[in-house]
Design goal:
heterodimer; A: about 120 residues; mainly beta; six-stranded mixed β-sheet; four-stranded antiparallel β-sheet; 10 strands; B: mainly beta; five-stranded antiparallel β-sheet; globular
Chain lengths: ~120, ~110
């Protein structure tokens, strides 16, 4: 079946502009995560959605970052007034929420954001 | 919160040798430990995971061991091949939180 998809694959923007990144999770996966990965670095957690519950926004680095998840499926990560330090690969992951505790995550291909 | 330490940051081996990557965690409530492989320019992919009710799990050339008392878990790759070259991430999560905490990654280089 289809995996997690993200768009665009690459985004180049000018400092100060707003950007929107999209994630389509695997159908039926109720958990959705956004991560940021700078070049050669680890995975920085940004935000977590689970079904209709309020999202866990504890990883968002500033109030310029926000995310929505509509209808429990597609998610959009928005970065306002982009800065050069926002340049990174933004990864989305989804996971089934089943009894028995946490499950492995399925990652999308990422969006490479470059802020000039 | 949970803290996951991963070592080494870089591991270089010859083809056919074994490779071991170690992680420690701080939260005794953590009960799920996945490992991800990320090839250059690709997305992370789950390669194996273990829950706290078992001490070891194998899948062909890879295995993971868990020591709950010492709060550490390890990834073992036997008979390494050049295609095993990648960055490997460990993670820990508890039943109370579905947000895993990741280690900083280990860059494994397998020389032919």
């Amino acid at each position: 079946g289809a995996g997690v998809s993200q768009s665009p694959s690459n985004k180049v923007t000018e400092k100060g502009k707003d950007v929107e990144l999209r994630c389509d999770p695997i159908s039926g996966h109720t958990a959705l995560y956004w991560y940021r990965q700078s070049l050669g670095q680890g995975l920085e957690f940004l935000i977590y959605f689970q079904g209709n519950s309020a999202p866990d926004k504890s990883g968002l680095p500033s109030d310029r970052f926000s995310a929505e998840r509509t209808g429990g499926s597609v998610s959009t990560l928005t970065i306002q007034r982009t800065q050069q330090e926002d340049s990174a690969v933004y990864l989305c992951a989804s996971s089934p929420r089943l009894a028995g505790g946490p499950k492995g995550q399925f990652f999308g291909p990422g969006t490479r954001l470059t802020v000039l | 919160g949970e803290n996951v330490e991963q070592h080494p940051s870089t591991l270089s081996v010859q083809e056919g040798d074994s490779a071991v990557i170690k992680c420690t965690y701080s939260d005794s409530a953590s009960n799920y430990f996945p490992w991800y492989k990320q090839e250059l320019g690709k997305r992370p992919q789950l390669i194996i995971d273990i829950r706290s009710n078992v001490g070891e799990k194998k899948d062909q050339r890879i295995a993971v061991t868990l020591n709950k008392t010492a709060k550490h878990f390890s990834l073992h790759i036997t008979e390494t091949q050049p295609e095993d070259s990648a960055v490997y991430f460990c993670a820990a999560a508890s039943g109370g939180s579905y947000i895993p905490t990741f280690g900083r990654g280990t860059s494994l280089i397998v020389h032919p």
